[in-house]
User: Fold this.
Amino acid sequence: MVQKSKGPAVPAKSEASPPSKRRGRPRAYEPDVALGKALDLFRTGGFAATSLDDLSAATGMNRPSLYGAFGDKRELYIKSYQRYRDDARAATTEIFREEMPIRNRLARIYAVALDIYLSGDSGPRGCFTVMTAGSEAVSDPDIRAMVVDALTGLDKAFAACFRRAKESGELPYGADPAVLGQLASATIHTIAIRSRAGVPRRELEAIVDGAIDVMLGAK
Assistant:
């Protein structure tokens, strides 16, 4: 029997798949910018009055993107409040740390606070802690813990300033740094509320000057 010759071998086709292309689109937003926009809305309108549609419009992110980046509305509110606290701390840290007379230190701290409270395109917004977070703290234990931490932290920071002033002889022997620290914080709270109510800066500065006189004249 004559065998038929086989034709030339045909090389097998490669089964290797082509390199996979990167899927999806690059992130079209900047988290810090978006969080800043959300912070502006919450400072102006509070938690309840700020809708997801408001947040979506301000940040340029749709709802799924908001959830993916920041969580639900409550989580975004908490992140916004933390951002506010971080920014406020950054604006005053060096003033609390630098060596200077206590009167100058208090005046500078209150000036920075007024800059923050009186800012806002649609009008003064006051303090996030006092004007909105304090209301949410009633029913939300996590926000309440943040508010308490903010309040006590400010008390302690002021108390440390008065303690140093007392040690340097700027305050009388009987001055109580802890009590003075609480009075200094209370002044912060009152100018925050009054600034949100539209009280002019010159009147707020007069309140600050009077409060400083009282605190430094304590016996």
About this structure: Confidence is low (pLDDT under 50) at residues 1-26. The CA atoms of residues 187 and 208 lie 7 Å apart. DSSP finds nine helices and no strands in the chain. The two ends are 127 Å apart (CA to CA).
